[in-house]
Amino acid sequence: MSGFTADWLALREPLDRAARSADLAQRFVAALPRNARIADLGAGTGANLRYLAPLIGTAQSWRLIDHDAALLAIARGDPPPGTNCTVSTDARDLAENIEALVADADAVAASALMDLVSRTWFDEVAAAAATRHAPLLFALTVDGRIAFDPPSPEDGAVCAAFSEHQRRDKGFGPALGPVAPAYMRARLEGLAYRVATAPSDWLLGDADAALLRTFIEGFVAAAIAVAPHSAAQIEGWAARRRDQIAGGGLSVRVGHTDLFARM
Length: 263
Hints:
By secondary structure, the protein is of the alpha/beta class. It is built from 10 helices and 8 strands. 44% of the residues lie in helices and 23% in strands. Strands 1, 2, 3, 4, 5, 6, 7 and 8 form an 8-stranded mixed sheet that branches. Helix 4 links the parallel strand 2 and strand 3.
């Protein structure tokens, strides 16, 4: 699985919290049994736990699963205050022994993960969860919508290269990328889940300059990796966007989708 730094995860967490669908989170909480055991896939530093545990409130048990033991160590050291929850961590390769990821779980959650995984991987996770009739909450899945304001004539070509990069293998096989929300809905409905989705878009502006700069750098690196022959044009586009960030006035909407499913 492609790695994310603790700094990047900390930078994005406030924006993620603001973007998430509160309605779908509450519906997930309402679907949980007493003393729910929740498997959090790709848990990182525990942002999903910190968001959901206070909403659950009652006794709950979390298993945070990630390939990066250092990120999980941060999660263990930063539990949500005032909540009645037990937290364990499980450092493992999420691409292996997929059924074990949801073993003994009453519910399955993930945040900013499902656009990175493959069809085959998702199918196996969905099937394993369905055998347990486990409710699911998959938040902040990229859905391919990106809009810059002010727009630029080069936006289309750069965004197309970035979108192609999103579909490259991130450690699970060819990634779902921007088709992930539609694919998840179809697959889960085929397993008799009832599925609801809601937009959870990032809205980046002047108040998010640090995150916006980091986003642009990652965006450019991904686009150049796909289209190295266009590196000069992409770098020129990026330089103009950096100037706009420095001067204020650049905003970006990055489309994400939250998904809740239950039997």
